[in-house]
């Protein structure tokens, strides 16, 4: 019978634990964390390529989603003279009601309209699907398909359903992204798609010069208490900016051709 001294045994266990943590850290870095999949210069070029589109259809789940994630990019499209339509699937009536609005659904729609005025895109459509149950609605997919067919976008913008940025997940967010992607895979020949809230971004839009509009748009969402969220949001976009070497950026996973799979 051979003895392993207690100290050495403890050291061995500690060594194994450290190795395990290192492996877990590596897995987290590779699989879970947000990272650019292309060099910074290429990501900025991808952002510039996005901005060349002139018919842009963005689909989000709730009022405030667009202002949180993509309003800087939408503003840049407006300044470039693009035709931009924003579709909001639900009124977000299950979200917070921080200023005690009597009718939260109506208040949130009003807030999104005010944000539209700030950013300046031409069209805003509410689908009025029930909050948190958007994708359970039997007509949701057909409505989205109909809108896309009618509007004929050259670029779609929506949530990333396949690689959503962690840890914040929401069934409406990924669900909306999935339905838009489905239409694109089926009928979106010649249409590009840019997924936001992605942990695998490959395109960055420099929003430094338009951040003031985004900040003001965010402030319209008073029921969500986003008036005070400006600095938090700015910090998130500054973090994005550092990845590509500009002060403030919004990130996307851009797929220019559906044959690439998306
Ligand atoms: Zn949302």
- Percent helix, as a range, is 40-55%
Spell out which ligands are present. zinc ion
Give the end-to-end Cα distance, rounded to a whole number of Å. Answer: 60 Å
Q: Name the CATH superfamily classification of the largest domain.
A: LmbE-like
Number of domains: 2
Per the CATH scheme, the topology name of the largest domain is: Rossmann fold
Architecture blueprint of SSEs:
Layout: H1 6-32, H2 40-50, E1 55-60, H3 65-69, H4 71-80, E2 83-90, H5 104-119, E3 123-129, H6 140-151, E4 155-159, H7 171-187, E5 192-196, E6 203-206, H8 211-219, H9 230-244, E7 249-255
Parallel strand pairs: 1-2, 1-4, 2-3, 4-5
Antiparallel strand pairs: 5-7, 6-7
Helix pairs in contact: 5-8, 6-7
Descriptive report:
The protein is of the alpha/beta class. The protein folds into two domains: 1-33; 39-260, LmbE-like (Rossmann fold). Helices cover 47% and strands 16% of the residues. It contains nine helices and seven strands, in the order ααβααβαβαβαββααβ. The mean pLDDT is 93. Bound molecules: zinc ion. Zinc ion is lined by residues 61-62, 65, 170, 173. Zinc ion binds at residues 61-62, 65, 170, 173.
